[in-house]
Design goal:
By secondary structure, the chain is of the alpha/beta class. Helix content is 44%, strand content 23%. It has 25 helices and 27 strands. Strand 5 and strand 6 form a beta hairpin.
Length: 695
């Protein structure tokens, strides 16, 4: 039966074609197979830093199966290992039933390499067992953590809670001990719970209640009774039971509450009082933190957008020196009253002695700016009476948006305070204005801000595309263009970031696929306009590994090519050699599928590995783009011969070569002689925001 899963398979062998055959056979059982392939000890140590589901060992340069087992065991890795043998050896390692010997349930040591389906079945079975072990381990960890958290909460709870086993106390928290008059935990351990119940009818009823609970009857989980303290006094109480664990063993949890009709209302009032500021009557910092947590969560879920306004009183020191604490308190109260009156559709709180916060939902940038300006004006025009004296004040406001991909609440507060600092710098500490925090202004130094800028660039088309011509020697024309992506920032230096500066953050926030789609769509829109007058114009677009493994990519590309006229060869997709080598099987299938929808395939940074030609022979791209190292110093005789050799071997497998980075006349003078079909570089033409085709 086909499973909907991923297999991470590590093969140690000197025959990659054998590994590819295994992958082909395993495709019937897995949606995705990530193949790791190596044949020496150094590469094994590097590979084991990743997580693998199965290891198949055949032949290696400097490794035996015993070596591999030892290395895996030394690193305490739970990894099923299968050793391949020839038929003669395998026949000698069968058990009495004629079946392959099993070592510790994780290593099949007597499988013949020729029996490929047997190897495939063993991989599947061992992976299933591994998955079960991992799931069991994860569940045990979750249960253990949950129990620990529960026990910590119970110990610190204000409710009276105890654990019983077969009706006997084995644990109780402090409120439980105090409720019944016990001086220590030792006094209650071993005491039957029925000893704390007054009256024969109560005892009889509780025994019946407990028996029903133990039998699994959960319809009635609350028991009302008269409880007995150690000093002989009684009180009306209600008891609730629940299943729990203590140190991994099943127990029954008991929660006891005194029957006070007003207790719930009192608790509610106390909770509300804890969120109120005593001076102003509005919510305090605790109330604000609870509310922003709710708003932030809803924003993360895409249910709303919101904004935080951080409002700082400007001239507190001056008011304090002239009118003392009385003047400061009067100012704070008046500002709080005014803010609460102004904000009818938001949440106002006193964050600190001289700062307030406002949370508002679903407002545009223009609406937020208008609101902040209104607050600034209203507070500035306000007159405050203190001890027959009239004073005034101003406020500075930092405004921060809260959206789907925004940072955590503590970072939002930091940004709001940063906005206040910016106001003080710009106004020479006078304040009296507002500043809207723009993540793009800080994206060059703040990863959170950079991630938000990337989302904004995707949503609002703030990326920039450049196009550099590629000269085709065979046809003597330059209507082939490579696309370059740039991210302009709104900082003081007008910084422009390249993909190597922001793709790591994009990877962390799962944005690479969206960025790739943006580039593809917008580049195709651009070339579509150009092809109306130059129908032979073509594009080459660099994509990330996220698109290399994206099964939806061929459908997207097919639609784009059709939208641009359906011309075969109009679009070339380019992937980095390192990404292709790390996803060799997936890349081979992706390249084939994309070729079938009239898309050409390319490999960037070609020649950076020792197996570049082998890789090209396997995945069959239409062209490759040489790594920079081959172009630098090409005017030296040895380097020139190396480049000619690589290009010659590449052409032998019917793959065209692009020679980039032609930056000067010296490089250009030898570029014609190396055998590359395509030439590119600043010496020929710089990238431009427009697609320029010479007539």
């Amino acid at each position: 039966m086909r499973t909907q899963s991923i297999l991470n398979l590590l093969v140690i062998d000197d025959d990659q074609l054998y590994a590819e055959r295994l992958v082909h056979l395993l495709e019937s059982y897995y949606d995705t197979i990530n193949l790791g392939f190596l044949d020496d000890k150094e590469e094994l140590f590097k590979a084991l830093r990743q997580s693998w589901d199965a290891l198949v060992f055949g032949n290696a340069y400097d490794l035996s199966f015993t070596d591999v087992v030892g290395i895996v065991q030394d690193q305490d890795i739970d990894l099923p290992m299968i050793c391949l043998m020839d038929k003669a050896v395998a026949a000698t390692t069968r058990n009495e039933e004629g079946l392959p010997d099993i070592i510790s349930g994780t290593m099949v040591k007597s499988l013949s390499a020729d029996e490929e389906m047997a190897v495939v079945m063993s991989i599947c079975l061992q992976h299933d067992n591994l998955r079960s072990r991992r799931e069991l381990k994860a569940l045990k960890h979750v249960i253990s953590e949950a129990e620990q958290r529960a026990n910590v909460l119970i110990k610190n709870s204000k409710s009276a809670v105890a654990y019983i086993d077969q009706g006997i106390h084995i644990f109780a928290n402090d409120p439980y001990l105090q409720l019944f008059g016990f001086n220590s935990l030792n006094e209650v351990i071993g005491v039957p719970i029925i000893d704390l119940i007054a009256g024969g009818d109560n005892v009889k009823g509780f025994k019946q209640f407990l028996r029903q609970f133990d039998k699994g009857n959960r319809q009635e989980v609350e028991f009302k009774f008269e409880s007995l303290r150690t000093d002989g006094s009684t009180f009306e109480a209600k008891l609730q039971l629940a299943s729990a664990t203590l140190e991994g063993e099943p127990v029954t949890q008991v929660i006891i509450q005194q029957n006070t009709n007003s207790s719930a209302e009192v608790a509610k009032r106390l909770a509300a009082a804890e969120r109120k500021d005593s001076l102003t009557g509005i919510d305090n910092r605790r109330g604000f933190e609870e509310q922003i947590a709710i708003v932030h969560q809803q924003a993360q879920q895409g249910l709303l957008t919101a904004a935080l306004l951080y409002i700082q009183l400007d001239n507190v020191g001056k008011i304090s020196s002239s009118l003392g604490l009385q003047g400061v308190d009067a100012t704070v109260k008046q500002v709080a009253y005014t803010l609460d009156e102004l904000i009818t559709d938001g949440y106002v709180s006193r964050f600190s002695d001289t700062a307030f916060t406002i949370l508002v939902e679903d407002k545009t940038t223009q609406e937020l700016e208008k609101l902040a300006e209104h607050i600034v004006t209203r507070i500035r025009d306000m007159l405050i009476e203190v001890d027959k004296r009239t004073i005034s004040t101003t406020v500075s406001i930092g405004v921060v948006k809260i959206e789907r991909n925004t940072a955590e609440p503590n970072i939002l507060l930091e940004r709001a305070m940063h906005a206040i600092n910016q106001i003080m710098i710009e106004t020479s500490n006078h304040g009296g204005t507002y500043h809207l925090y723009d993540p793009s202004e800080h994206a060059n130094s703040d990863d959170h801000a950079l991630a938000e800028s990337l989302v904004d660039a995707i949503t609002n088309n703030r990326f920039e595309l450049l196009f550099q011509p590629i000269y085709d020697i065979n046809h003597d024309r330059s209507d082939f263009f490579e696309v370059y992506l740039r991210l302009p920032l709104a900082d003081a230096d007008n910084t422009i970031l390249t993909p190597d500066q922001f793709m790591s953050v994009a990877k962390t926030h799962n944005l690479r696929e969206k960025i790739d789609r943006w580039v593809l769509i917008n580049a195709c829109k651009k070339i579509n306009e150009v092809r109306k007058t130059h129908p032979e114009a073509r594009l080459m677009v660099q994509l990330t590994s996220a698109s290399l493994i994206d099964k939806k990519l061929p459908d997207v590309v097919s639609q784009l090519i059709k939208a641009v006229g359906g011309a075969a060869g109009m679009l070339t997709l380019q992937f980095n050699e390192k990404d292709v080598s790390e996803h060799l099987t997936v890349a081979k299938n992706q390249f084939t599928t994309l070729n079938q929808v009239s898309c050409l395939m390319g490999i960037n940074n070609f020649g950076s590995s020792t197996r570049s030609i082998e890789m090209v022979s396997l995945v069959k791209p239409d062209m490759v783009r040489l790594a920079r190292s081959y172009v630098e110093g090409i005017d030296a005789a040895d380097n020139l011969e190396t480049v000619k050799s690589l290009i010659g071997r590449t052409n032998e497998v019917n793959v065209d070569v692009l020679m980039p980075y032609i930056e000067d006349a010296a490089t250009m003078s030898v570029a014609w002689s190396v055998g590359a079909r395509y030439l590119q570089g600043y010496y020929l033409e710089e990238p431009s925001t427009a697609i320029k085709i010479a007539n």
